[in-house]
Amino acid sequence: MVSKLVKVVFFITLFSYAQQIAKPTDLVEWINPLMGTDSSYELSNGNTYPSISLPWGMNAWTPQTGNNGNGWQYTYDANKVRGFKQTHQPSPWMNDYGPFSLMPMTGKGTVDEEERASWFSHKSEIAKPYYYSVYLADYDVTTEITPTERAASFRFTFPKTDSAFVAIDAYDRGSYIKIIPSENKIIGYSSRYARGKLNNFKNYFVIVFDTPFTTATLWNDKTKINTNELSGSHISSLVHFIIKNKNTTIHAKVASSFISFEQAEQNLKEIGSDNFDTVKQKAKNTWNTTLEKIQIEGGTTEQIRTFYSTLYRTLFFPMKMYEIDTNGAIVHYSPYSGKTMPGYRFAGTGFWDTFRALYPFLNLIYPSINKEMQEGLLNDYKEGGWLPEWSSPSYSDIMIGNNSASVVADAYVKGLRGYDIEKLYQALLHGANNEGPQATGRKGVQYYNELGYVPYNVDINESAARTLEYAYDDFAISRLAKLLNRPQKEIDLYENRSMNYKHLFDPETKLMRGKNNDGTFQKPFNPLKWGDAFTEGNSWHYTWSVFHDIEGLAQLMGGHQQFTTMLDSVFQMAPVFDDSYYGGTIHEIREMQIANMGQYAHGNQPIQHMIYLYNYAGQPWKTQYWVREVMERMYKPTPDGYCGDEDNGQTSAWYVFSALGFYPVCPATNQYILGSPLFKKVTLHLENGKTFTIKAPNTSSENKYVDKIKLNGKEYKNNWISHEDILKGGTFNFIMNNTPNTKRGTTTDTFPFSLSTNN
């Protein structure tokens, strides 16, 4: 009987998760902010944290389970909460800047992060993009948070006690707090940051309680100081309340600014006189309005939850770093001068990750926010002299490439206007021909411009990866140059440089390989060796990084048949590796090893586009198969829901695009390469007022292969669709099947753009 009951429950659960949902509503409620949080240093299932914020908000809030300064600030396997932290952290590897936290407690009040930590359970935790709640078991206190763009409202529910406290932790590396009892107010700043060089950096905060303090004390580290104002290495405050009745709520309104205390007070007006529930409802409405740009229909519960949970992750980074002053002007703190400057600024993204799909996604669905981002990049260049490649929140010396070229060019190619593109173009030329500080510009640029590649033997790490990315970046510059009607000589220079990838192609192995400055290939060469000539990958991953000339790469390999055989080999090989460059197995290697997809490493960015390359060689059904395999196996709306670092929206944007049925293999062109649509119907509500509807009424886990396509009622033969066709609005109709159509998309006239054949 028990066995039968278990089977019944199992099949009911399976059915409820697999049943089709006609048209989900209240879209924010489908999101799981805990997706990807079951991660660690050794193995990433996303390396995310529950971000309680508004889309592209200046601040996010998260429960803090890790100790102060730990990049793994929230992990699903933790059992204690140390505080509720304002964060700007793009990833644990980058860590945070300007953090501070609040923590309620009862009994013995303490500012010590170890002593104040409380047990909690996920069973008494509610995590939504617009609202977070958790029961702190050691204190019988419930904490709730709801955000605005630059502020947040807290609600603490206490038991009856004469010993209720809220600890305010301004963190170490220089902080300040002032108590203003007459206004129930605490002000302070945190000057802690992990990356780059920041001038005059402070995150100023103001906290206003709705209940008078009984007492409030200040602490420098663990030493209590009898004063109402204190600065030092690590300043905290302990605010004391007497609670006369059970379930008494104390509210706190919190805002911050990178500019001044006065600006923090201005930012607090985002809440104004709104009570907690009003702020919460407004935040929920903002999320639903943003998410409704993409309305899906006809998916399973799991697919819908995964889709909107990944869409949620594409809407945070880079974060707004600009504020609105008392005159209504847009201003920002400049990390380059330490001064307040006019205009937009954003921070918290690495272009090595996000040029691939995140920025193309913004250009398609949310172009107005990327217009602001482009203006922010312009201010980075004006104030700092370079475009950032990784901003957190200033230039950060990590990763490779000059992929700001792609981010700028793709925006303009996709139709964004209304900003100084000529100045941005000059910024691209500056970065392309000079080596800058903190991973800006191009390391090894003199070698690259003279030899056509960065040599392996000149003490410049990851030389082959740099060469391949520089070549693509040169292509992006050449496309923008054409649109700006630059001199033909200038266009030709960068277009010719974009062919530099050919210098590294080894005809013996049919793979990319490091090359010495005398023109000989590196020896010994192990294509399974991670790092060394490549970045967080091996030759089998990076060989495909010729986004702009896949046909040229295919011909180097011996033609389309040999090219697809090489693509097949990625999945057929065992997931073996050489990790000697790192002296140990880094998490990206482990994530490839355990995925059971051969050498395909979806958990990191360099190879994520490779699945779509079958479209360039007449075998699109293989793209359709592998896209579905990755969507179905590597993404779940669960704490272990990613197969590697989520990385500021990039790995999520891959899923969102792929679920729609196409992907931007080569940003700075106008083409999206076709895959296998996941849902029966998707409606894109475009910012130009048009709607573009993708229909696949018979799609299913079995019917993953594209049999026929019609665009606006007419047969469509190409293996790609243009950005312009989508912006016009219309209907893209897929007829799916459970067996491949091996005749569709096999002729060269259906293949996507390659520079060698389409120039």
Question: What overall form do the CA principal axes indicate?
Answer: globular
Helix count equals: 21
Uncertain residue ranges: 5-16
> And the CATH topology of the largest domain?
Glycosyl hydrolase family fold
The fraction of residues assigned to DSSP E strands is 15-25%
In CATH terms, what is the architecture of the largest domain?
A: Up-down Bundle
Helix content: 25-40%
Count all strands and give the number.
38
Keywords: Calcium, Hydrolase, Signal
Domain Glycosyl hydrolase family: 263-737
Pfam families: Glyco_hydro_92 (PF07971), Glyco_hydro_92N (PF17678)
GO cellular component, one term: cytosol
Model description:
With 759 residues, the protein is α+β, with helices and mostly antiparallel strands. It folds into two domains: 31-293, Distorted Sandwich (Beta-galactosidase, Chain A, domain 5); 298-626 and 633-757, alpha-1,2-mannosidases domains (Glycosyl hydrolase family fold, Up-down Bundle). It is 28% helix and 23% strand. It has 21 helices and 38 strands. The strands form ten sheets. It has a nine-stranded antiparallel beta sheet with strand order 7-8-9-10-19-14-13-12-17. Helix 9 runs antiparallel to helix 10, helix 12 (463-483) runs antiparallel to helix 13 (488-497) and helix 15 crosses helix 16 (560-572). The longest helix has 21 residues, at 463-483. It is globular, with a radius of gyration of 26 Å.
